[in-house]
């Protein structure tokens, strides 16, 4: 069985087009994580706070970020997919975040195969309401977990997302190649 973190390329044209391996689904509270040792998506926990994921959420293959995990990606979708789904996506923004003292930024992307998102190319194409909802989710989703502290640190555009993906690819190569 293929290991979706190690065996899949970061994308067909990374960093401009990436693969997002979906773990958590839009509208749900279940926190799934890909376990490369299984390999498969396992239930890590149910969010303690009464919030739900604002869109499908997962990671990009062959990336490793400053929090010592695969690089996170939130893919804006109309309808939830399923855990383990691989979405070809176009990065459009970067949300900066600190999670318990570790840099834990999130790439915001859109599916390349959904015409509803053809116009979304950069941060300014994401509505302020969408940004506020994403920020609110990540700022509060760990509030009821003992000892967890999260701080959202603002937004950057497409180029910052592309640079961060290249950084995550370099970290992966240095640590695992």
UniProtKB/TrEMBL annotation:
Ligand binding (substrate): 31, 45, 57, 141
GO molecular function: inorganic diphosphate phosphatase activity; magnesium ion binding
Residue ranges of coiled coil: none
Obligatory cofactor(s): Mg(2+)
EC class name: hydrolase
Keywords: Cytoplasm, Hydrolase, Magnesium, Metal-binding
Positions that bind Mg(2+) 2: 72
Gene Ontology CC annotations of this record: cytoplasm
Subcellular location: Cytoplasm
Pfam families noted in UniProt: Pyrophosphatase
EC number(s) recorded for this UniProt protein: 3.6.1.1
Chief subcellular location: cytoplasm
Subunit details: Homohexamer.
Entries under PANTHER family matching the protein: INORGANIC PYROPHOSPHATASE
Similarity comment: family membership: Belongs to the PPase family.
Protein name: Inorganic pyrophosphatase
Origin species: Halomarina halobia
Gene field: ppa
């Amino acid at each position: 069985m293929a290991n979706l973190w190690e065996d899949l390329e970061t994308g067909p044209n990374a960093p401009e087009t990436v693969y997002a391996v979906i773990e958590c689904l839009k509208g749900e509270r279940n926190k799934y994580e890909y376990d490369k040792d299984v390999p498969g998506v396992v239930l890590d926990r149910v969010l303690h706070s009464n919030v739900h994921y604002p869109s499908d959420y997962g990671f990009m293959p062959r990336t490793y970020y400053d929090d010592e995990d695969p690089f996170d990606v939130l893919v804006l979708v109309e309808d939830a997919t399923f855990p383990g789904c691989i979405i070809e996506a176009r990065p459009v923004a970067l949300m900066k975040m600190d999670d318990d003292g570790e840099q834990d930024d999130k790439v915001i992307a859109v599916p390349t195969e959904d015409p509803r998102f053809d116009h979304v190319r950069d941060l300014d194409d994401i509505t302020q309401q969408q940004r506020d909802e994403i920020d609110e989710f990540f700022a509060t989703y760990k509030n009821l977990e003992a000892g967890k502290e999260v701080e959202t640190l603002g937004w950057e555009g497409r180029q910052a997302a592309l640079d961060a993906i290249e950084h995550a690819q370099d970290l992966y190569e240095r640590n695992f190649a």
